[in-house]
Here is the input.
Amino acid sequence: METFSHKKVKARKSHVCSTCNRTIEKGDMYTTSFVVDDKESWVWKECELCEKFMARYDIGYYGEGYTSDDIYDALVDICCNEGYFRDNTLTSHSPAWVMMERLMGVEG
Here is the structure.
């Protein structure tokens, strides 16, 4: 997998974050990347929370990109390592965005 472009833009319409599946609203800043793998290509859109999460836990592009499964697996590992599953507020079946908000201190 290779990332050919990676830039921060302002949404002109609603999008869905490729990492956490939440809506990126019109006017929100987000990161967009063009990714190619073998004969397939796609655009990866990432909300600001996901971008901050990736930077905080050093989960980067490194020219190869990542999938939503990679992110979810990383979230489960991080939550286990930081003890978030012991207090029964999260389970390994929690949506990725619930775990990400908890780790980033953005509880709703």
The helical segments are 48-56, 68-81, 96-104. The mean pLDDT is 79.
